[in-house]
Amino acid sequence: MLSSSSKSFRHLHLCLQLCRTPRLVAGVALLAAVSLVAITGCSDLGSPSSNGGKALTYPYRIVTTCGMVTDMVRNIAGDKAQVIGLMGPTVDPHLHKPTRSDVRVLSEADVVFYVGLMLEGRMADTFVSLAASGKPVYAVTEVLDESKLREPPEFEGHWDPHVWMNVALWSECAQGVAERLAEFDPANAQYYRDNATQYRQELAALDNYVRQVIASIPEQQRMLITAHDAFGYFGDAYGLKVESPQGITTESEPSVEDVNQLVDLVVENKVPAIFVESSVNPKGIQAIQQGARQRGWKLQLGGRLFSDAMGAEGTYEGTYIGMMDHNATTIARALGGEAPEGGMQGRLSGAAIDK
Ligand SMILES: [Zn+2]
């Protein structure tokens, strides 16, 4: 685990491992089949209020994977569908294997939405067989132009799946969901599009807020060090340099060398704070903090960020907007920028910085 191999070597190694695993190779081929089946499936759904020939009863049933997708689809489907999210606040989507109950819930769904780009890597086979059975199964990221996706050099051949960290890109995905629902339930096409328009206006306000508070951080301190590489899109969109001791998935453990390099970076740049994530093991981050303190730099823990899962259901942080508001506000305040303690709407629960 704690090998001294360099970060890029380790990532390349992991990538090769992934690419050489026959099951995953088959998964990739089958994923292509999923899109074909999904497209074919769609053309069968042309008649109003029909579900591939069956009469549609409301609310029909949509099943989603992680909280960010669940929240987006709820906003767009409104009262036309019951939206069931499979992954709660503590679930790591990179590692989640579908349980027997997941498979049952998915098989009872009328429509399925997931993030895609291999985020839910261990669910790929399940999505494939669902789509093969004729069920509409969609990745919300499928609408994004490839030129907007990150392909981190150390993870050649794989897209970075953490698209929701760029609010503008996530907003494009919302439009895609509306179009898919409009195809599935043409009688309510306008309803879904209107809901998407309203949700996208809220996301535009969020995007502005995030941009503004991150820009208030003194330039040399715009460095985000967090547990795993979930924040690449965030950094690109809002102007932060992002470093992490763990790669793009949470499958690998940080090496001693990675940790030492980050300790150097923190001490040399006098980075005031680093961050832990709600769904990722904090070991690597704690090691950096300890290393910096041994060298006389009082590095703070800037707080807990939501990366691949949202806050508790029923709270503001348990919505996508609340999660991103919390992240931007926490990061800005910990790194010396200016942001109201209660965030964009004064709704954060006061724990913006828990040092
Ligand atoms: Zn992740």
Structure overview:
- By secondary structure, the chain is α/β, with parallel strands linked by helices.
- The chain folds into two domains: 24-208, Rossmann fold; 217-334, Rossmann fold (3-Layer(aba) Sandwich).
- Helices cover 44% and strands 11% of the residues.
- The chain contains eleven helices and ten strands.
- The protein has helices at residues 7-20, 22-43, 67-77, 100-107, 124-132, 167-184, 189-215, 232-238, 256-269, 283-294, 320-334; strands at residues 50-51, 54-55, 60-64, 81-85, 111-114, 137-139, 223-225, 241-243, 273-277, 300-305.
- The strands form four sheets. The protein has a four-stranded parallel sheet with strand order 4-3-5-6, with helices on both faces. Strands 1-2 form a two-stranded antiparallel ribbon.
- α10 (283-294) links the parallel β9 and β10 (300-305).
- α3 (67-77) packs across α7.
- The longest helix is centred in the middle third of the chain and has 27 residues, at 189-215.
- The chain starts with 6 loop residues before the first helix and ends in a 21-residue tail after the last helix.
- The relative contact order is 0.12.
- Residues 1-50 and 351-355 have low confidence and may be disordered.
- The structure holds zinc ion.
- Zinc ion binds next to loops.
